Amino acid sequence: MTGMHHMLVHFPLGFWALATLMVLVGALLPGRMAELSRAALLPVLVLGLLGALAAIIAGFLVWPLAANLASPLARNHILMAFWSLGIFTMLTVLVWRAGEAAFDGARRWVLVILALLGGLFFASAGTLGGHLVGAPTHFSTLLGLTGWEVYTTFYSPGWVVAIMVVIGLACAVFGHRHKRPSAGGG
Question: How many CB atoms lie within 10 A of CB 140?
Fold first, then answer.
């Protein structure tokens, strides 16, 4: 079963890397390639989310939660995986809800920032996962330059994560209450 998590994790990584590239092409370049990237982005994001959920579930089935919580490295790996999932979920919802207008005006910069941030988080999750299985990457050196020693730095305290979740939910409620009526009058 351990190999299942290692295999499944490559699906969201591949789809999210592709989605990040598609957002950059769709937002920054003109022409047919940008149009194709924008048109195909939503299915790629959805496949990435499904792959991420499968990989996370497999990870929790393979290793006992008590063992994961005892290691700062494993906790950080799990935290980065959930941050990646959250950011790419947000990106998926924005693209799904806005449709073709997702890349209009300043909205494109929101997509670019989310895609780059999500890419940073999934790269961090991947490099931490590599450390967990004894295959460190050079990306760890970059993390070290930011002050993050991957074997000892502790993740965000539970109360910080809880506050961030409450803020996120409050923003979602605020956005839902103050959304503009659609052109169809609904």
Answer: 18
Q: Please, are residues 116 and 20 in contact by the beta-carbon 8 Å criterion?
A: yes
Number of neighbouring beta carbons within 10 Å of residue 13: 21
* Cα–Cα distances in angstroms (integers) from residue 154 to residues 48, 129, 149, in the given order: 27, 15, 9
Task: Check if the beta carbon of residue 65 is closer than 8 Å to that of residue 120.
Answer: no
- Report d(CA 106, CA 75) in Å as an integer: 35
Question: Percentage of the chain surpassing pLDDT 90?
Answer: 18
**Amino acid at site 72:** P
Token pair recorded at residue 128: 């931490």
What are the residue boundaries of the structural domains of the chain, listed by start? 2-155
Q: Is the pLDDT of residue 157 over 70?
A: no
Determine contact, residues 73/109, Cβ cutoff 8 Å.
Answer: no
The dihedral built from the CA positions of residue 69, 149, 83 and 60, taken in this order, carries a sign that is: negative
